[in-house]
Amino acid sequence: MSTSHGETVMQKPISAYAFYLKSLIPADIPDTYELKPKFKNVASEENIHKGVIAFRDFLYVFCDRLISDGYLYAKPQKTKNPSDYPFLKKMNHLLIDIGYNGRLNESGDSLLVSEIPSFTSIKPKIPASKQMEYLRFLALCGFVFTGIDLDDKTFHMTGVFLEVTYPKAPVMLTGLKALSIAAVELWVRFYNNANDLLRCDYRVMKAEDTDVYGVLKDILFSLPESIQSVALGLHKRYTDIGMTCAIINDNATHFAYAYTKNSRRLLTPRDIYSHRIWEIEVSMKYGYCIVIRPKNTDKYADLIESFPLFLRNKIAAGYGCDRKLRNEPCQGGCQGIRIPMEDSIVAMKRYIEIWLDHEVPSS
User: What is the pTM assigned to this prediction?
Assistant: First the structure.
């Protein structure tokens, strides 16, 4: 899968991306669940649960700051990947460094940090000229750094013990610590998904397997209930008949559905994505979409004639490289036939089911 479809374009302001990022933050995080053993020595389960919720609330503040002040820290750039904002990628690394390398004090209301690899490695992810700028942005979001003067032009980590606090909700630092351990030691990278702390993916910390239905429900929460019902109904329909769903995070979030019963080996999420018949995709560029990759439409052409005109036209146009098929700029057409999850999709649900029923192999 390529994550850089399209021509070189000018990015939207980072405030626009912040709105999108905010929509990916889990709205409903349980206050109790069993943790994997590796987290038992971080803090009590109760404090980790509270800390994760507090970190989620910090991310809301973080996104709001990006919306109001982000233009001062990140200018739009020309890129083939409109979702690639270096400021956010580097901030993600900085937060992980603080959480992973910081040592919680006995009361859990501060982190003592003596190493920030994204500042001090041979080739630092954040150059010396920008390091204070990143710390100042975190200070705007409520962090307090004791041991340095944020008005200084540069930051020198050598020999410095930095005390990090978050007075608004001190338990947030426990959540940051636990999530950073998860980011470094448990999260699986997929292409350029660089252990993205900004999604608050607490589920990998849970002892039990992730409930994909719950993840999908979380990510759809901002849509009207009627549209949520379409997506959740399609998910249930096709997982019930044996399709496997894999969640992939890159520049978008993909719920990829493939028929894997005939596979002779255990498939990775990447394998499932590459064999997908359809997916639910959430991205800044395309919004919420259902994407279908049909292969057998010639076998039920008469049936397609009964579909709404919008679907008939979509199917007739086919999918593939936009430049080769239609001599048009790339619009990600190779990913499949994209159907926006708007009000009109409610009336099309039954036709989409009929369409997919004819694409899914029989058991």
Answer: 0.86
